[in-house]
Write a structure and sequence with these properties.
The protein has 4 helices and 5 strands. The protein has 145 residues and is α+β, with helices and mostly antiparallel strands. Helix 2 runs antiparallel to helix 4. The radius of gyration is 16 Å and the shape is elongated. It starts with 9 loop residues before the first strand and ends with a strand.
């Protein structure tokens, strides 16, 4: 692991996003709350939060962090038959939370896949990326649109 002992603790924020593409009927099942495994987006939200908290257990050499906030938002797009997930993660510490935000998005989208794979094995997770990061020595990063 990288030694961060000499780094100042600062307020750090990261936003990440990704999408899962699916058949229109699958999206309809999710939006109507008719999935056999239950509330797809509610469970995906909890899975994303849990994943952010466990990032250092999943990614080698990632520092364990005391997160102060993890929030996930889902946006359904009927035109593209997809759901976007955006994760916002915050801490006050010596290293950033980009990996936590990216992990939260990936696991939330994988949870949607898992809960709906019985009706749509062709779902595709795509466009996972860091949107923004704030804080720390390197300052602010905002992805180009």
């Amino acid at each position: 692991m990288v030694d961060v002992a000499a780094k100042a603790s600062t307020h750090r924020i990261a936003l990440a996003q990704g999408r899962i593409l699916m058949q229109p009927a699958t999206l309809e099942i999710i939006l109507q709350g008719n999935a056999k495994k239950g509330d797809v987006l509610g469970i995906a939200r909890v899975a994303g939060i849990m994943a952010a908290k466990k990032t250092s257990d999943l990614i080698p050499l990632c520092h364990p962090l005391a997160l102060t906030r993890v929030a996930l938002e889902f946006l359904a797009d009927e035109d593209s038959s997809s759901i976007s997930c955006t994760a916002a993660v915050e801490t006050v510490g010596q290293t950033g939370v980009e990996m936590e935000a990216l992990t939260a998005v990936q696991i939330a989208l994988l949870t949607i896949y898992d809960m709906c794979k019985a009706v749509d094995r062709g779902m595709t997770i795509t466009d996972v990326k860091l949107l923004e990061k704030h804080g720390g020595k390197s300052g602010t990063y905002i992805a180009e649109k």
